[in-house]
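Human: You know discrete backbone vocabularies at least as well as I do. Show me how you would write down a chain together with its backbone fold. No explanation is needed for now; the record alone will do.

Assistant:
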Amino acid sequence: MGNDGGSIPDRRDLVRSKPKAEQADKANQSRARWFFCALSKRPLQDPIVSCALGKLYNKDSILEYLLDRTAYGDGEEICGHIRSLKDVKTLKLTPNAALAPGSDPSPTRAPFVCPLNFKEMNGAQPFVYLASCGCVFSHAGLKAVSGNTTPPRIDGTRDGEKGKEKNEKEAAQDDTGKQFDVCPQCATKYDRAEDVVLLNPAPEEEVKMREAMERRRAAEPAKMKKKRKAHPNGGDSERPVKKSSKVSPTPSMNPSIAAASRVVAESLAQEEAKRKAGMSEAVKSLYASKNSTKKETFMTMGTFTRYA
């Protein structure tokens, strides 16, 4: 019925609109990435490692995956790029002093903080780790410390001396032009361009990090070739040379001695044949061959023996 003046249908009553796609809770997604292992989905516990893509894992989960790649259903999709423990770095994390030691992890408080500005590692701000030493800092804290500190100079000159560099605030560079800085926590040198890895990056940034990782892996065989070119022998000179076991040749026999021994052997054979020719049948039976069908001799003829 309807349309009799008693009701006026609206568009939403006549046309069904497409339902909106369900949106995941960003807060829960962020908490899952920063509080739980990306592989086993268990809470993060020391020792914690990270790969070249900045994902966080429990080290025992990575060991289980490397021993059995079918231990986790989506293991190949999550960390298929991890070939061995050399592809991950153990992180040096600073525990959160606000949490009581031995207490259960709080769902709102992060278990780790930045040692420079004590910001919690909960996804609210970006965190990075240094691939050279594994120390973890907030991006803002590391940037503030690296910008305020004066990097060491290559020539070792002091302030006030002649020949000092004009740009004292720039990082020290080696022969390849790389900029190096010192870790503010353990004083280990690191490359600003390659050793600073972003933790839990955005999808767009993760794609760039994956491409950089593939380029580094593609360049690994080239480095090995360069090392081999530096050593023309290809390292074979360093290998111990196996001593070849030389077999001493057998001494050759004098032809005259060989002929004399042959004559002696023939004479002995003739004498043996003459001796057997003069034997009686009874004596010959004693020297019968083992293959002979006749088992009796003149000593056992006409007698009964159990073992005859």
